[in-house]
From TrEMBL:
<feature type="transmembrane region" description="Helical">
    <location>
        <begin position="86"/>
        <end position="109"/>
    </location>
</feature>
<dbReference type="GO" id="GO:0015499">
    <property type="term" value="F:formate transmembrane transporter activity"/>
</dbReference>
<keyword id="KW-0472">Membrane</keyword>
<feature type="transmembrane region" description="Helical">
    <location>
        <begin position="37"/>
        <end position="56"/>
    </location>
</feature>
<keyword id="KW-0812">Transmembrane</keyword>
<dbReference type="InterPro" id="IPR000292">
    <property type="entry name" value="For/NO2_transpt"/>
</dbReference>
<dbReference type="GO" id="GO:0005886">
    <property type="term" value="C:plasma membrane"/>
</dbReference>
<keyword id="KW-1133">Transmembrane helix</keyword>
<feature type="transmembrane region" description="Helical">
    <location>
        <begin position="162"/>
        <end position="182"/>
    </location>
</feature>
<dbReference type="InterPro" id="IPR023271">
    <property type="entry name" value="Aquaporin-like"/>
</dbReference>
<feature type="transmembrane region" description="Helical">
    <location>
        <begin position="129"/>
        <end position="155"/>
    </location>
</feature>
<dbReference type="Pfam" id="PF01226">
    <property type="entry name" value="Form_Nir_trans"/>
</dbReference>
<protein>
    <submittedName>
        <fullName>Inner membrane protein YfdC</fullName>
    </submittedName>
</protein>
Length: 240
């Protein structure tokens, strides 16, 4: 929250680009596997890749900040901290989305990947548009909940950090939940190949997913988990 706007911008852009690999690797696995009922169980491993790059690389991801930036607001309870949180969210969200859009654009180059991968990319790209507004929103609530829970767990995971990231993000991927940044690479790609319109990107994907992820991250984890430790924080303040 104390970082400069420029530092946040570049870190968020890098995170958006890195998250694009979740889309790409998932499509590569989809294209390499036979069309069976268990293919999704294997290809969802590819969904975890972008999160590993972003989190271990300490890049700025929007859904992580639905926990980390909310806890100081709940603890300090002043407008200065709230303003810093809103600034952080705005910069990170915009440049995460710019990064995923750039990645989707790079995938438009012909003959970089084989025809089976290109076909799989188009199939995976339609996933964010596969459900109505309400269903997408609820899926996004669960995704935001899980990602924020992962952030809550990481400080105590220590040597199990990688396993924690893989376990939680695989759960998001295999459950076909909607993540506003990971899925935005898919959604942008779908727009670029003409599978959906720009309006669908915002109304069918971005709006319900953003709302759901924030509800999941803020209410399910930040507020509830903070409530569990709030009495200890208040006791510490009195002692000081």
């Amino acid at each position: 929250m104390e970082r400069s706007g420029t530092a946040l911008m570049w870190s968020a852009l890098a995170a958006g680009l890195s998250m694009g690999f979740s889309f790409l690797v998932q499509a590569i696995l989809e294209g390499a596997l036979p069309d069976t009922g268990w293919r999704h169980l294997i290809s969802s491993l590819g969904y975890t890749i972008g999160f590993v790059f972003v989190i271990l690389g300490r890049q700025q991801l929007f859904t992580e900040s639905t926990l980390t930036a909310v806890l100081p607001v709940l603890t300090r309870r002043n407008f200065t901290t709230l303003g810093k949180t809103l600034r952080l969210w705005g910069i990170v969200l915009v440049f995460n989305l710019v990064g995923t859009t750039i990645f989707a654009a790079l995938l438009q180059f012909k003959h970089v990947f084989g025809p089976e991968v290109t076909t799989a990319l188009a199939e995976v790209a339609r996933a964010p548009f596969s459900a109505p507004f309400g269903v997408t929103l609820v899926r996004a609530v669960f995704a935001g909940w899980l990602i924020a829970l992962m952030v809550w767990l990481l400080p105590t995971a220590r040597s199990a950090r990688l396993a924690t990231i893989l376990l939680v993000t695989y759960t998001v991927g295999v459950s076909k939940l909607t993540h506003v940044i990971a899925s935005s690479a898919e959604a942008a790609y779908a727009v670029m190949i003409g599978a959906v319109g720009v309006g669908d990107y915002f109304s069918v994907f971005l709006l319900p997913t953003l709302i759901g992820n924030m509800l999941g991250g803020i209410s399910m984890v930040a507020i509830i988990n903070h409530a569990a430790i709030a009495p200890e924080i208040d006791d510490t303040r009195r002692e000081e």
